Amino acid sequence: MPQKGTFAREEVKNMKFVVKACSNGKARAGILHLATCPNPIETPALLLATRKGLPSFITKDLLASLASSDSLLLQSSPLHFLDCPSPGTISKIGGLHHMVDLHEHGFVAVPRDSIVCLPEFESTNKHGASLETPSGRTLIKPAFYMEMISSLKPNLWASVADEVPAWVSEKRNRTSVDRTIRWLDECIALDPTGGETVLGAVVGGASLKERGRCAEEVTKRKVSGYWIGGFGLGEDMDERDALLNAVTDNLPDGRLRQICGLGLPEEILQGVAAGIDLFDSTYIYHLTLGGFALTFPLHQNEKNLYDPQLCDIGSDNAKINLRATVYRKDTSPIVDGCKCYTCQNHTRAYINHLLNVHEMLAQILLEIHNTYHYLGFFRLIRDVILSGEFDVFHQNFIKGRRDHLASVALCS
Hints:
Distance between the termini: 42 Å
Largest sheet: 8 strands, parallel, barrel
């Protein structure tokens, strides 16, 4: 059964987060309250990655139809607003909520571009973060970053971070942590609220020592939660558990934790097992661009049986490649029983046709299904945490994935 008790509550003007249950370890279910959201948001939760305010291929009306409060969290990068419109223009409009007319959603601003890969570590300057942006490489100093945050008016925002890939030296990791802590102090000093809505960035590359040191230092600052960066940049999945634990073991239990760089279902479960609350959804975006649709089961006891027919067409039994010719005459929905708009109204054959004639409607329909499906995956995760069965679910999910990969190897 989940371990229940009295957990620390962190209340600020615009946000309140409460951990309500833990399941056999660090996996935890919580409730996030944001000033703009009429309903509480249950965690672990998925943040929908956006470009200029809305998820790619999803309009406002489609967003509202996806899944009630499950789709109320949006992640945006200030880097997308460097040129047009300018920070001054957005500020006059009233912030990001007013510009995109999503007043009941929560926006989380992070310094990493959620779609474009992080540039090489040599691009970081000691005076600021030199990042690849839609406008080219730009030097982002804490003062300018805070100007963008002030104009966007997000519910939560992460401080500037010096993220580095896994293969850098211990000295470079140490420098990364020192810069990130210094930039956090500068951001808090420039924040009119004094850090009431900031998620302190935690970095450290593939160094257990520097990960732990950074987490310890950030907890000494006045922050509302933590943004864990530097993952998905070349670290081995087998060593990731230790890196995650080096961070979460040094963070207080009652504050919000968000991570960037973990997207695959097994990576999400790995993060949840370490005690992470919020995850980005870039995985959905890249699936959709590739013509893939998620198909893995969303019931705890349902099995996804290996289908040898799918071995040769790019399927891994978590998703299917709808560009494949095998779906040209397939009149079934993407997933039988799925309640999303796409599965209720269109067939695999139609989406296969749209993909092959390069019609953008294919991406729209795929994005709807993939987003709906992944939000359902997070609901399942919350259910198994509350029932105290997360560890069993996690182990069975990973075992099923490994068994399938072994079957594919034999098939080939």
